[in-house]
Amino acid sequence: MPFSHAGKAVFYMKKHGGDSLIQVEDLSKAFSRGSDTLQVLQQISLSAEPGELIAIIGPSGCGKSTFFNILAGLISPDGGSISLNSKKVPHLRGRMAYMQQKDLLLPWRNTLDNAILGMEIQGEHKRMAREQARDLLKTFGLEGFGDRYPQELSGGMRQRVALMRTILCKKDILLLDEPFGALDAITRSIMQKWLLKVWGQFGPSILLVTHDVDEALILADRIYVMTSRPASIKGSLQVELQRPRKITEPDMVKCKEYLLGLLEDELTVPES
């Protein structure tokens, strides 16, 4: 079972044959409030191959979402480097598609119009955007639900709309921040299969934050483990197992034991 350790991050944009890439190295971030400073990230470095599905796990509150917010261009790092095509870029906003923990569907928009929101923001014509989204309804298991509103959809269907919206942004890298964490176990398992289907069809590179070790093992080509705050990379695991995977398979059990071993010292039980 091959294990690897932290290096610098290289996220290639698969649709362009690896010509477009992002390099992330020694990323740091702290937040200040008055005289208090909270160090959240401390020299984060990762690596990824073109088209990989990467999972990031770590203790709750360690800084995974902060890391994604930096990659999405929503906040700026304090230190480290982020480059595009080997050139440092001052702004990352709009370079990647970002699906956050909640589906964030607008209640006054139906399925089709929620799915095209990102395209509209990017300046695409609404009629053309709707046509593209309508063509994908069947792919995302939403055929016949294009005119339904969020309150008429199940939790899994709402997440599929959110995933469809993310895909329709047409970015080579997807940032998925705990997208299935609020779903029940059965629906989450179904959504994991949908994600693998979409990934196989559209071929983006995916960075997935999850608190579920089993989910990481079922989905990812490579898994990174973050330390508790301030977060750094404690170790990584290359998962060279054929899909579909079952968590009960002996090799999967060994992988899980390794990851839990990395996490063990990072998890603390609150004092009563």
Features:
2 domains; 8 helices; 272 residues; alpha/beta; Rossmann fold
Task: Walk me through this protein's architecture.
37% of the residues are buried. This protein has 272 residues and is of the alpha/beta class. It has helices at residues 64-71, 111-115, 117-121, 126-136, 155-168, 185-202, 213-219, 250-264; strands at 3-4, 9-12, 21-33, 36-44, 53-57, 79-84, 87-88, 97-99, 173-177, 205-209, 222-226, 233-238. The model is unreliable at 1-20 (pLDDT under 50). It is 31% helix and 24% strand. The longest helix is centred in the C-terminal third of the chain and has 18 residues, at 185-202. The radius of gyration is 19 Å and the shape is globular. It has a seven-stranded mixed β-sheet with strand order 1-12-11-5-10-9-8, with helices on both faces. Strands 2, 3, 4, 6 and 7 form a five-stranded antiparallel β-sheet that branches. The protein has two domains: 3-96 and 172-264, Rossmann fold; 106-170, no CATH class.
For the record, the count of structural domains works out to 2
CATH level 1 name of the largest domain: Alpha Beta
What is the count of DSSP helices, taking H or I runs of 4+ residues? 8
User: Considering the protein shown, what is the CATH homologous superfamily of the largest domain?
Assistant: P-loop containing nucleotide triphosphate hydrolases
Radius of gyration: 19 Å
Helices and strands, in order, run as EEEEEHEEEHHHHEHEHEEH
If classified by CATH, what would the architecture of the largest domain be?
A: 3-Layer(aba) Sandwich
The major β-sheet equals: 7 strands, mixed
CATH third-level topology of the largest domain: Rossmann fold
Low-confidence stretches: 1-20
Percentage of helical residues? 25-40%
Strand content: 15-25%
| Average pLDDT metric | 84
